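ok, trying the design again with the full structure, not the truncated one.
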């Protein structure tokens, strides 16, 4: 067992049994070749939680070689055997849900109940993909000649590099790795430097589930070493696939790097989600949906409502009810405290961005209805904030805030608001509330996004394809479509069949 400096919150929840501070490569727990480490901090109090291996160039080559060698064995397993191992991994997540959640809350900051929900959803994704492994079907095509037979085979791409973010450190790994492993690929997971302990805990459970050595790998890098080592990873021709979740700017850079070896890529990048309340909306339902969408994970999700558009005729009612709901239902504090719904932001840099967006809006005429400043707890806590009088020249109209700020724009007609909602380079998610069925069809079809929530502020489920259009990325996660991201289609033309 790797020795890790434990936070008290983890000791009291027995999660220490899942804590590791070394990378998991080829079925072994490996320290950095150059013995370097970096520190993981609790965003709720700034305390050091653990020192984790900051892996070196030599380690990158080792993890790729290990995953490549294991690929040939893993791809040949029957779907029953592969599905069984993946399913057991999902079962172990559920069995260890409370301890995994404690780790997530400690290094990421979200409320413990939210962390438990994340682990449950992650297990659901894994078990969904374990079942989908049984349904990777090829095709028999019509013959173009009497003595020919035409087939399409679906085969795993190969070694998949999976680069995951800090905001959902368990679920994002499950969503990517579940699909990759079920498809027959081997996985190299590079978690965020802010949340490596969750990833390493998943590796511990993957080992227990029975993945052969080298099939499931986790390699950890600190902030300084990440750019160089990720480039080495992506320059390696043995890595045939990249799946990345993160900012649009970094996604573009990684795509450029993948182009050198023509890798398959899937990208889930930034968003700037619109949340539209039409005059026919159920206002109480819209307020609840706005709370669900905007303030989940303290506003730190890629599908959070970033721009809230409310029809002029219901604007004042909606804003009054939203402000009241925010004051009564949103409690800020450390994630282990009872009743907390809003944890800290992940870094001081994140706090600074939220402060900049609020200050910019106020300087341009917006009104702070509630919140607007750092929380009295200090540190990386920020008050849930409602702003009215938002306009398209304010920073959050074109930038993703990634924090607990809800700016409200007025609008007067459908065409106007759809045009404004679509006036962005990204297109991940969009939401709207209406009870006019014709309008529902029109707007759902008109919004330039990959996902639309109609009279609902929550989108994510293992059954549905998750992803965006425009500069929000490429490909889909979740659902049966996700496995296609990790499969090549091979055409076989057989002649001489008499």
């Amino acid at each position: 067992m790797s020795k890790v400096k434990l936070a008290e919150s983890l000791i009291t929840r027995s999660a220490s049994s899942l804590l590791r501070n070394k990378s998991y490569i080829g079925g072994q727990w490996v320290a950095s070749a150059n013995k370097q480490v970096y520190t993981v901090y609790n965003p709720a109090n700034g305390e050091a939680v653990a020192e984790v291996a900051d892996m070196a160039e030599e380690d990158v080559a080792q993890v790729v070689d290990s995953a490549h060698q294991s690929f040939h064995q893993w791809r040949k397993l029957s779907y029953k055997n592969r599905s069984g191992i993946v399913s057991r991994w999902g079962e172990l997540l559920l069995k260890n849900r409370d301890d995994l959640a404690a780790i997530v809350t400690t290094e990421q900051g979200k409320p413990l109940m939210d962390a438990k929900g994340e682990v449950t959803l992650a297990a659901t994704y894994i078990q969904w993909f374990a079942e989908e492994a049984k349904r990777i079907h090829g095709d028999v095509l019509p013959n173009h000649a009497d003595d020919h037979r035409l087939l399409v085979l679906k085969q795993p791409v190969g070694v998949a590099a999976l680069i995951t973010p800090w905001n959902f450190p368990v679920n994002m790994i499950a969503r990517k790795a579940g699909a990759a492993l079920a498809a027959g690929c081997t996985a190299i997971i590079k978690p965020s430097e802010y949340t490596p302990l969750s990833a390493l805990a998943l590796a511990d459970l993957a080992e227990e589930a029975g993945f052969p050595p080298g099939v499931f790998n986790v390699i950890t890098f600190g902030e300084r070493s990440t750019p160089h080592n990720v480039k080495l990873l992506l320059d390696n021709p043995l890595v045939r696939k990249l799946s990345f979740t993160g900012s649009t700017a970094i996604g573009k850079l990684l795509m450029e790097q993948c182009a050198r070896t023509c890798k398959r890529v899937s990208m889930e990048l930034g968003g700037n989600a619109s949340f539209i309340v039409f005059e026919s909306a159920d206002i109480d339902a819209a307020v609840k949906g706005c709370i669900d969408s905007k303030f989940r994970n303290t506003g730190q999700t890629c599908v959070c409502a970033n721009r809230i558009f409310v029809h002029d005729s219901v604007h004042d009612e909606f804003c009054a009810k939203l402000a009241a709901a925010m004051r009564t239902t949103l409690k800020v504090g450390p994630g282990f405290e009872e009743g907390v719904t809003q944890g800290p932001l992940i870094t001081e840099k994140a706090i600074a961005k939220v402060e900049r967006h609020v200050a910019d809006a106020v300087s341009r005429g917006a009104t702070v209805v509630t919140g607007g400043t750092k929380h009295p707890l200090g540190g990386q806590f920020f008050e849930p904030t409602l702003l009215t009088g938002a306009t398209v020249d304010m920073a959050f109209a074109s930038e993703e805030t990634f924090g607990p700020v809800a700016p409200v724009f007025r609008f007067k007609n459908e065409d106007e608001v759809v045009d404004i909602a679509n006036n962005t380079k990204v297109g991940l998610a969009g939401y709207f509330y209406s009870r006019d069925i014709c309008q529902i069809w029109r707007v759902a079809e008109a919004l330039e996004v990959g996902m639309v929530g109609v009279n609902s502020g929550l989108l994510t489920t293992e059954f549905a394809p998750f992803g965006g259009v425009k500069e929000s990325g490429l490909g889909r996660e979740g659902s049966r479509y996700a496995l296609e991201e990790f499969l090549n289609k091979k055409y076989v033309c057989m002649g001489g069949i008499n």
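Keeping the full-length input from now on. The chain is about 40% helix and 20% strand.
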